[in-house]
Amino acid sequence: MPHATILGLSGxxxxxxxxxxRLLRAVFPHAFVLHExxxxxxxxxxxxxxxxxxxxxxxxxxxxxxxxxxxxxHENGTLPPWLDSKEDxxxxxxxxxxxxxxxxxxTEVRQWASQxxxxxxxxxxxxxxxxDGFLLFxxxxxxxxxxxxxxxxxxxxxxxxxxxxxxxxxxxxxxxxFWKDPPGYVDRVVWPNYVEEHGFLFEGGDVEGSVNExxxxxxRLYSGSQVTGARQYAPQIAxxxxxxxxxxxxxxxxxxxC
Length: 258
Description:
This protein has a single domain, classed as 3-Layer(aba) Sandwich (Rossmann fold), CATH 3.40.50. Helix content is 37%, strand content 16%. It has helices at residues 17-27, 63-76, 99-114, 116-121, 143-148, 159-167, 185-198, 213-218, 233-246, and strands at residues 5-11, 31-35, 48-49, 52-53, 128-133, 151-157, 172-173, 178-179, 221-223, 252-257. The chain has a 6-stranded parallel β-sheet with strand order 2-5-1-6-10-9. It is of the alpha/beta class. The termini are far apart. It contains 9 helices and 10 strands.
C-alpha cells in the first residue's frame, strides 16, 4: 500500500500551480510539495524551438528521474533525500487569498480528519504529496509518471492571462544560475507547446474551449466548477480534494482560471 497520496497540479505556465500547491500545503496536514521544475535537464542539453532554448517541452524534463522520485514518495511517504529543490527559490507571487480563509480551511480539514469518517478515507497520518508541474498529463508524458499520480487536477488559464503573468515574472532560478525569458518567448515557445501537448483534452484542440467528453471519459476526467480567479482556487480545490479522496476515485479534475 502506498505510504503517500500524490496529488498532481498541472496546467500551462503561470496558471497558478505553484501558488496553489503552497496554499494546499498550508491547508492539509502532513502535506509537502514536489516540483516538476526540479527535474529540468542541464540548460546546455535542452532542445531548441524557433531558435530559442525550450524549457517548456517534455524533452526538457528528466522524466525517468521524476518517475523515480514519485516511486520513492509512494514507498516512503517523504521527499527523496537526493532531491535539492531549486523551484522553492522562485517567487510564486501573492496568492490573493485571505490568510484567515487558509486558516479556516486548515482547521476544517484537521477537524474532519480527526473524525471516524475522516480517519477512514483521508487517513490523516498518510502524507499528501502535492506535485506541481507544467507537463504532467500531456500526450508525450511517460505513462509511468501519469499513473503514479493518484489525484490529477488540471488548472487552466487563457492565452491572454497566461502571457500577462509569464511576462510579468522576473525570471527563474536554474541549475546553472538564472533564466530570463527572451522577448516573444510565450508566443514562440510556451503557448505552442501547451497547445500541442494538451489539445487532445479539448474539443477541436481548442485549449480555451470545452473539454472533449470522449477523452474525458477515457481518462476518467471530471470537470470541477468553473472559477473566475486564482484567489478562488484554494477553497474550491481543498474541498474537491477531500471529496475525491473520500470517494476513492482516480482521474483528472479540471478547473478554469480567467
